[in-house]
Amino acid sequence: MSEARARIVAADKAHLWHPYTPMDRWLAETDPLVIVRARGARLFDADGKSYLDGNSSWWVAALGHNHPRIVAALHRQADAFCHVSMAGTTHEPAARLGEELCAVAPPGMERVFFSDDGSTAVEVALKMSLQLWRNAGARDKCRFVALDAAYHGDTLAATNLGGVEVFRRPFAGVMLECIHVPVPAPAPGAPNDPYARAFTTMEALIAERAHEIAAIIVEPRLQGASGMRVYDAELLRRVRAACDRHQVLMIADEVFTGYGRTGPMWSCSAAGVVPDILCTAKGFTAGVLPMAATLTTARIFDGFRGAPERAFWHGHSFCGNPLGAAVAREVLAVFREEEVLERAVPKAHRIAEAFQALADIPGVHAPPARGMVGAVDLAADAGYLGERGWRAYAEARRLGAYLRPMGDVVYIAPPLNIDDGELDELLDIVRRSILHALG
Q1: pLDDT at res. 425
Q2: Which of 53, 116, 117, 151 is catalytic?
Q3: Structural contact between residues 13 and 19, judged by C-beta atoms closer than 8 angstroms
Q4: Residue 214 and residue 192: Cα distance in Å, rounded?
Q5: 151 has catalytic annotation
Q6: I need a labelling partner for 394 at 20 to 30 A (CA). Which of 62, 80, 92, 99 fits?
């Protein structure tokens, strides 16, 4: 270990607290990965080795690392001004971003509220839902419905929505009542049956308890942190119809599923569904800066007009940050001009074929791939604390790929514009790493 690398590791272990990390394991790690540079689909460590970034650094680097156009946009905006508040002011990056974002959003999404990450985008959606009904005099509509094994963020309210038990357990019952709809464990050969039962239960809940439900929240067509589990678009349409019948809001958490990750720009659009509120982050700034947005319909916005006490009294100092807004605008421009969604289609087919082939390996359960996401469960239960996935991780690292697992779930969610040769290399490493983990 070089002296410079050793200093970084020593400072880290003396002072940092890592996210989603058992710290005893981290402190005992004798050879941690120290990244010094990133470009495209690759990370470069302090020892000069490169690694394919198999999960886009927690799903954010949708266009790879340090895309030159996005970095240039950041520099241009920094030369003009880095930040002003949006309290009584506005600026071109935020205003134009709102206009351009609504232009590509599902029809009817007309208003944008900026925040700083996926969790706070969801938090904004929850507070909007609660206050909307209170402004309308329906104070009893204060509960939410979510699927079990869902993940909607890490702020306290968003954590209570989540259904990943190991994440939620320390905070259960503190605030924000959420009704969790159980999703049975998936069965090989019938991946959608458990979700059909779950969505039938959700429809019944909406009908029976509409007087107390403010909103339902879903990850459209793909539950990410639960193990990349997929469900049919028809189920999303059924819940949208139930919400319409019983005056319950529908929140689409597109923090992970949006921006082309599951194929189309928005996963709910593939189902022909328009939510009342849509949350986006991660790919929104392509991993360059922390920024998010919550989009709503005119109906939601109009519910906050009138007397001052009806206003949405929420925000933060960096709301609509000009640097983030300039970057997010350039991300949309790259999507348009470099035909990112169209060019990702054949890459998604390669991922689907590769992961379908992995399902033939004894001990591997592979749900259908969706868009630029492929996953396998090495224990058939998506156990978040499992160890097999970490054995695959260690082997992948040795072979030159960063494949941080979710317990026993090994998955890829690479940049949408990953080079075809690099994608083939990544898929080969995934297969070899899984065989190693099971052997």
Answers
A1: 98
A2: 151
A3: no
A4: 27
A5: yes
A6: 62
